[in-house]
Amino acid sequence: MTPEHSTALAQTEDDALLHPVPNPGIEHHVERYTDVDAKAADRAYKQVVGIFGLVPLLAIAFVVVYFAVPRHATAHLLGVNWHVHTTLLGLTGGLAVLLIGVGAIHWSRQLMNDTEIAEERHAAASTEEERAAFVEVVNAGVKDAGVSRRGMIVASMGGALGIVAVPAIVSLADIGPYPTAANRRETIEKTIWAEGTVVVNDSNRLPLKPSDIEIGQLVNAEPETLWDLHGKDYMNMKSKTPLVIVRMDPNSIKIPESRKDWHVGGILAYSKICTHVGCPISLWEQQTHHLLCPCHQSTFDLGNSGVVVFGPAARALPQLPLKVNAEGYLVAQSDFTVPVGPSYFERDSRNDYKDGDQ
Fold first, then answer.
1. How crowded is residue 64: how many other Cβ atoms within 10 Å of its Cβ?
2. pLDDT by residue (tens digit) across 90-143?
3. What is the pLDDT of residues 327-356, one digit of tens each?
4. Longest Cα separation, the chain
5. Nearest CA to 280 among 298, 294, 269?
6. Phi and psi at residue 59, in whole multiples of 5°?
7. Element (H, E) at 47
8. Which residue among 30, 168, 279, 309 has its CA within the 20 to 30 Å range from the CA of 355?
9. Rounded CA separation 49/55 (Å)
10. How confident is the model at residue 1 (pLDDT cuts 50, 70, 90)?
11. Which of 298, 342, 297 has the alpha carbon at shortest distance from 318?
12. Surface-to-core class of residue 39, CB atoms within 10 Å of its CB (0-12 exposed, 13-18 middle, 19+ buried)
């Protein structure tokens, strides 16, 4: 056997391994009706434009229903009480999105190029020539899609995609009030702590006297008025008002001039809610006066106005000013002077206490 025959035989065997199944080829192409009948193609074109054209109408209907239909209106149909507002919103919004998909599919099936193409699988990395060829294929695809000849399809689809965002934007109004500075001050930045509010032990709801707390002790506390609330109001305040009451030797802690009357004989009150992501803080180190958050290890120095000494928290733990009322119980002097809980980008942090402030 000559070397040429050996090489040819080896190539034949390699081809058999690479292609164990004979190539069936591409089936005989059957022309679509829209490819052979110009009137049919024109009808399909109008149908696609019409489908896309319905989307803005449905989007406008969504907005009208959102504002005009009463929220609690119902209708009895087929033995079922339908919530009219949400049903109509679902129908108009859902149909708008559905028609975008239907229009795109109808366009691709009836008007885009219908030629079958087969090619060998190639390596993952493309050469410069292959990239140039790809660009040519893309341009040919754009041409086959009829964009240049049927510009209204692109315009109508673009309009449909743009207008369908309007119902989603309008629906965002249901998330809650707009986070303006005034709304934040009256909601998430405000608690029920006020002048004269009695501090009570959160486990037995008994008011606290200075004599009840020993040096080094930590007590979890709440405002006495918390249990006057119910439902969501109770839950909202339950998440914002918890305190940790600690007593330390006044000679062993740093009390800035601006807070010299915020404590009672070394008894200080701080928010129990971590300023990182809002976890409740409970790990108290008596010797160092540090309070450790169990979630992400943010550490606050309660002996130095609650400043952050370690971890991801970005601001000091808010402190509640304390005093003693006529009955000898611990009470608040006011609400917190800064918002409690985790930081957020809208909040002005200029009033947060920092180490060294007076």
1. 12
2. 999 999 999 999 999 998 888 887 777 777 666 667 778 888 888 888 888 777
3. 999 999 999 998 898 887 666 666 777 776
4. 117
5. 294
6. -65, -40
7. helix 38-68
8. 279
9. 10
10. low
11. 342
12. exposed
